[in-house]
Specification:
95 residues, mainly alpha, 2 domains, two-stranded antiparallel ribbon, two-stranded parallel ribbon, 4 helices, 4 strands
């Protein structure tokens, strides 16, 4: 689905990406499928702290690879220590 999510990418660069075939739009249903699966699947009940992509759990990969391939989740994003630190920081900014 062509939305304005790529509005911050230089238009010329975006056109190059589109022309390369690496940038593909999803239908609205395909774009929503992973969120719907994760929200409704009985198999994922009580599962949390994981990232899903294209209806599958995303593999944990090196951060540099995540940016270049667009597949997977960087290890720092699923690190429990980072999550605890962020939670603590969030609480202090609310008080």
């Amino acid at each position: 689905m062509d939305t304005n999510l790529a509005r911050h990418i230089d238009p010329a660069v975006l056109e190059q990406i589109k022309a390369s075939g690496q940038y593909q739009f999803k239908t609205a249903g395909a774009g929503a499928a992973t969120s719907v699966l994760v929200a409704t699947s009985p198999q994922l009940e009580d599962v949390g702290g994981r990232y899903f992509q294209d209806c599958n759990e995303a593999p944990v990969i090196d951060a540099a690879d995540a940016e270049s391939t667009g597949v997977g989740v960087a290890a720092y994003a699923v690190d429990p220590t980072n999550a605890d630190r962020l939670w603590s920081l969030s609480l202090t900014t609310l008080l």
